[in-house]
Design a protein that fits this description.
Blueprint lengths: L1 H12 L27 H11 L1 E6 L2 E7 L12 H14 L1
Antiparallel strand pairs: 1-2
């Protein structure tokens, strides 16, 4: 019986993809995390270069979501709390 279950699982994983099959999502994956669409990319890049933090739109707010990938290793970033405050104020303006 265990062998039959294993065979069924193998068969299920090797089925060809069906081009007519569509995956339904309640909302787009990027709806919760969409890079700062309310801000010019030049501002987002300048903020990351100056502070070491990445901005993104989350819901209706601009927030810091991660450390910038281009920030040099072993280099301290700007104060996270103060940068969060700037992002909060940006959200109020937009």
């Amino acid at each position: 019986m265990h062998t039959q279950t294993k065979t069924q699982t193998e068969e299920q994983t090797t089925l060809p993809a069906d081009p007519q099959l569509n995956l339904y999502l309640e909302r787009e994956p990027s709806a919760e995390f969409e890079p700062g669409s309310w801000l010019p990319q030049s501002f987002i890049d300048a903020f990351a270069e100056a502070t070491g933090w990445e901005l993104a739109r989350i819901g209706n707010e601009i927030k810091i979501v991660d450390m910038s990938q281009v920030w040099p290793a072993k280099t301290p970033t700007a104060h996270r709390g103060k940068c969060d405050r700037v992002a909060e104020e940006l959200s109020k303006l937009l």
